[in-house]
Amino acid sequence: MGRILRSCLQSILKMVNSVGGLVGVAFILYGLWMMRIWYREFHSDPTLPWFIYTSLGLGVSLCLITCFGHIATETSNGHCITFYMVLISLLVMLEAAITADIILNKDWEEDFPDDTTGRFNEFKNFIRSNLELCQWVGLTIVTAQGMSIFLAMILKALSPNSGSSYDSDDDSMNARLPLLRNQVQQGATYVCDPHVPYKSDSWNLR
């Protein structure tokens, strides 16, 4: 029963973890598209703007975290699952910090460097014009990350490595039982031999 439950949790965690991978692939494709436009319009300047590097770096990071999450889920190793939860927690904290800076700071645009491509302004205008859709997408991503942490905690508790100490105690007890049985059997063999003549106390007195 525990093995079936662990298998179901692994499948659900893989599905939830795939959301981050899809977002990472989207960022990578968007960064490659901006890179193509940049090299087509600015042949003389091979230096890419920061927004393109950020999109590519964020996409690659999300894909790597997703791959590591699949490996940790498949192996059910306690250390891998713990490291995966730490990565997801750091990512959620980073997202929360950026969101708080945008909401609380009215001049949050000044915190970012200038974008010579103009794609950053287009990205901001797209979010403003489709604010409700972007809110649902962001909520879906954050919910998937929270569920990933929660399911990873349950999977770590149900992993075979968590009960290794109890299994070792059971094995040691099973190993000691034959020794105890042998000692009991050896103690029961001390009986009188019928071939040895019986000598009474009266015979010894004579």
Describe the structure.
By secondary structure, the chain is an all-alpha fold. It has seven helices and no strands. Helix 3 runs antiparallel to helix 5. The longest helix has 40 residues, at 2-41. The N and C termini lie far apart (77 Å). The model is unreliable at 163-173, 188-194 and 198-206 (pLDDT under 50).
Q: Report helical residue fraction.
A: over 70%
Low-confidence stretches at least 5 residues in length (pLDDT < 50)? 163-173, 188-194, 198-206
Q: Could you tell me the strand content as a percent range? A: under 5%
DSSP E strands, number: 0
Q: Would you tell me the overall average pLDDT?
A: 76
Order of helices and strands: HHHHHHH
Q: What class, by secondary structure content?
A: mainly alpha
Helix and strand topology:
Elements: H1 2-41, H2 50-75, H3 78-104, H4 119-129, H5 131-158, H6 164-188, H7 201-205
Helix pairs in contact: 1-2, 1-5, 2-3, 3-5
Keywords for this entry:
disordered C terminus, single chain, 206 residues, mainly alpha
Overview in brief:
The protein has 7 helices and no strands. The protein is mainly α.
